[in-house]
Amino acid sequence: MDDLNDKIQKAADWIAESATVVVFSGAGLSTESGIPDFRSPGGVWDKYDPEDFSFQNFLASEKSRERYWQLATEMYESIKNAPPNDAHLAIAELERLGKLDCVITQNIDGLHVKAGNSEERVIQLHGTSLYVTCLSCNKRYERDPIQERIRQGIRAPYCDDCGGPLKPATISFGQSMPVEEMQEADRRSSTCDLFIVIGSSLVVQPAASFPLIARRSGAKLVIVNRDPTPYDSVADLVIHGEAGVTMAGILQKVRKMVTN
Ligand code: NAD
Which of 97, 103, 228, 259 is buried most deeply by CB count within 10 Å? Predict the structure, then answer.
């Protein structure tokens, strides 16, 4: 058995023997669905400056809101019709096999639920791009009708009810994290016995604190990521590879163990 196979087997063994498995996903989980991540070569931050897209800038000027909507529209185009990939499907199957407590995701693309995970088991730390919210009255809109306004030439849309600025229901740099989701993610990370990171650079805080919370609370930590992360040295197992083929390999072995 080669090194990669050994690692895949070990991850599968740990899933099979764990009572509470938490998956923590990042943008790298969805690149194989055609959605660019932020930090890989060719990712979003190769084209845009993150500083320009802070929440403070969004609030500060009409010009910033227009630029924000330009980036958000480009991202939504890649998200809207993206299919779940093998890694999403493997995670959904872990739930069906009774081997998943929850997914804590930084992703805004809705692909965990599209793949078959139940909504109540997916904690969206950074919100969702499938909806839009009014920053003044909190009215929520479906995304597509708002995109239609953009297509017709509106560069920064406003609320029909109160005239406040509309923003995709995602969390920008400098914007407060959702309180309930953060509390729930903290609780699940502190009480799981296996925590699996998939496709995250683990540099975006506070989301990236959850693997450490899990590790310090006694869980085993597994990291599946193409590139090294700052937490590789504290992980119990690190697989540097593609999420799709790795998770499909792990699932195949788990399936055999838990259905036999
Ligand atoms: P990131 O861009 O910082 O890091 C992505 C990581 O995934 C990289 O380390 C890269 O090596 C790895 N990766 C890329 N493709 C991979 C693959 N096929 N298999 C395995 N690993 C792969 O992403 P992040 O850590 O999630 O943080 C960035 C922020 O980006 C998050 O807050 C998230 O909200 C946002 N984001 C989300 C989406 C999405 O919803 N799909 C897309 C872009 C950005």
Answer: 103
